[in-house]
């Protein structure tokens, strides 16, 4: 390769690695990754204490195994449902109908997609819920039910009077939780069936543009509440334990795709105040771009308030704009009456919306640039300055005349 070609390759590489991938025509959003990795998953029911056998019903023949919490190879704690390994799984106590699996993120994150992959049959009824206040209050994302969402036979009444819809055909401008039947059909896969929530399919670009929908997709916790086991009709009165041990909830992986909550102003998630950083974890902090600042890039940098702050969205970068303060201020405040930012606390004896003039009794020093800290000088200092210069000039003339005369 010639030297010129080498140089060309070097510069091409340099440009590619330093160029921001943040588009100029829209906000900036990190690529989604699995938020569950490196975070806490908990369940209110887990098999293994006491030790019990369970059966995996398969078309090729049932397999009977033992769940024993004291033997690592036979234990199935919740942490095995977010370890990134599809061959390990969390498993609830057998034949328990009301079970909750909960993911705790610690800091607000944005959800793009949730996929629960089951080792067992999928539940006949399930509710996916989110919290954005560390689990104090919960809001449903979606209801899942087999055949029909009419829950007349469900004692807790949670599946009554629900709006029923089909995935991909739900109103994008509503955050109402609909009930769908697609993820828990009767002809269920015995293994590795999934239950999904897809924000892109549900809300389209409104998930970047609509404040209510952005808030809806911001979570500190997610939980899946399983409300009804899928059985094969052989669990009626009188069924013995060998039948009932076939039915339980178990999950190989809960994959929650999402990214840090940065209001459309970051492409990279970074560590946030003392957050742990295990390998593979999607961190909660923001590497703020577009001249923004704050833990979620929720405000402009101090000197960049020349227009109101805005979130980056699907059609607008909404970068913060720098105020012109001529180097004499560290911050500015947007003035809605004036339609632009006004510099705060002009320094260096300057004043004005842009610190563009000297204060009373101070004058511009024509020998200095206006952004020089000493560009405004006191009138007395000014006169003394010019007196010195004039005196020097007169002395020079006198000396010159003396030299000429001799
Ligand atoms: Ca696993």
What is the CA-CA span between the terminal residues?
75 Å
Q: In total, how many domains does the architecture comprise?
A: 2
Q: From the 3D coordinates, which CATH architecture of the largest domain would you assign? A: Sandwich
> What letter string, H or E per element, gives the SSE order?
HEEEEEEEEEEHHHEHEEEEEEEEEEEH
Large-scale geometry = elongated
Class computed from helices, strands and strand pairing: alpha+beta
> Sheet bearing the most strands, described?
10 strands, mixed
Which consecutive residue ranges, at least 5 long each, have pLDDT under 50?
A: 1-20, 382-399
Helix percentage: 10-25%
Averaged pLDDT: 87
List keywords for this structure.
406 residues; alpha+beta; Laminin; 2 domains; 10-stranded mixed β-sheet; 15% helix; binds calcium ion
Summarize the structure.
The protein is of the alpha+beta class and 406 residues long. It is built from 6 helices and 22 strands.
Task: Compile the SSE list and pairings.
Blueprint: H1 3-18, E1 33-34, E2 40-43, E3 52-56, E4 63-67, E5 90-91, E6 99-118, E7 125-131, E8 139-145, E9 178-180, E10 194-198, H2 199-203, H3 206-209, H4 211-216, E11 218-228, H5 241-244, E12 250-260, E13 266-270, E14 285-288, E15 292-293, E16 299-300, E17 332-335, E18 340-343, E19 350-351, E20 357-358, E21 362-364, E22 376-378, H6 379-405
Parallel strand pairs: 8-9
Antiparallel strand pairs: 1-12, 2-6, 3-4, 5-12, 6-10, 6-11, 6-12, 7-8, 7-11, 13-14, 15-16, 17-18, 19-20, 21-22
Calcium ion (CA) binds at residues 80-81, 83, 85-86, 88-89, 252-253.
């Amino acid at each position: 390769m010639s030297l010129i070609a080498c140089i060309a390759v070097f510069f091409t590489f340099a440009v590619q690695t330093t160029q921001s991938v943040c588009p100029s025509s829209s906000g900036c959003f990190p690529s989604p990754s699995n938020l569950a990795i490196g975070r806490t998953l908990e369940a209110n029911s887990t098999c293994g204490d006491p030790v019990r056998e369970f059966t995996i019903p398969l078309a090729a023949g049932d397999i009977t195994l033992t769940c024993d919490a004291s033997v690592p190879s036979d234990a199935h704690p919740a942490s095995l449902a977010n370890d990134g390994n599809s061959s390990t799984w969390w498993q609830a106590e057998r034949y328990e109908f009301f079970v909750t699996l909960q993911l705790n993120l610690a800091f607000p994150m944005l959800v793009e997609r949730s996929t629960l992959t089951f080792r067992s049959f999928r539940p006949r009824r399930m509710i996916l819920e989110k919290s954005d206040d560390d689990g104090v209050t919960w809001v449903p994302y979606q209801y899942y039910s087999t055949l029909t969402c009419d829950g007349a036979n469900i004692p807790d009444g949670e599946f009554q009077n629900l709006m029923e819809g089909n995935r991909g055909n739900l109103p994008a401008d509503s955050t109402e939780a609909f009930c769908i039947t697609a993820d828990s059909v009767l002809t269920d896969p015995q293994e590795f069936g999934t239950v999904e929530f897809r924000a892109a399919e549900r809300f389209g670009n409104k998930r970047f543009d609509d404040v209510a929908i952005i808030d809806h997709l911001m979570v500190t916790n997610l939980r899946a509440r399983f409300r009804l086991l899928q059985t094969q009709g052989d669990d009626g009165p009188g069924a013995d334990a060998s039948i009932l041990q076939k039915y339980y909830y178990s999950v190989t992986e809960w994959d929650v795709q999402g990214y840090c909550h940065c209001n459309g102003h970051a492409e990279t998630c970074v560590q946030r105040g003392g957050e742990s950083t295990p390998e593979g974890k999607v961190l909660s902090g923001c590497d703020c771009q577009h001249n923004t600042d704050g833990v979620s890039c929720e405000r402009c940098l101090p000197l960049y308030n020349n227009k109101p702050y805005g979130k980056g969205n699907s059609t607008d970068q909404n970068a913060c704009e720098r105020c012109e303060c001529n180097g004499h201020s560290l911050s500015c405040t947007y003035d809605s009456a004036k339609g632009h930012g006004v510099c705060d606390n002009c320094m260096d004896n300057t004043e004005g919306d842009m610190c563009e003039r000297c204060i009373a009794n101070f004058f511009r020093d024509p020998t200095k640039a206006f952004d020089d800290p000493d560009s405004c000088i006191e009138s007395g200092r000014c006169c003394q300055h010019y007196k010195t210069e004039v005196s020097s000039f007169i002395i020079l003339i006198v000396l010159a005349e003396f030299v000429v005369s001799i």
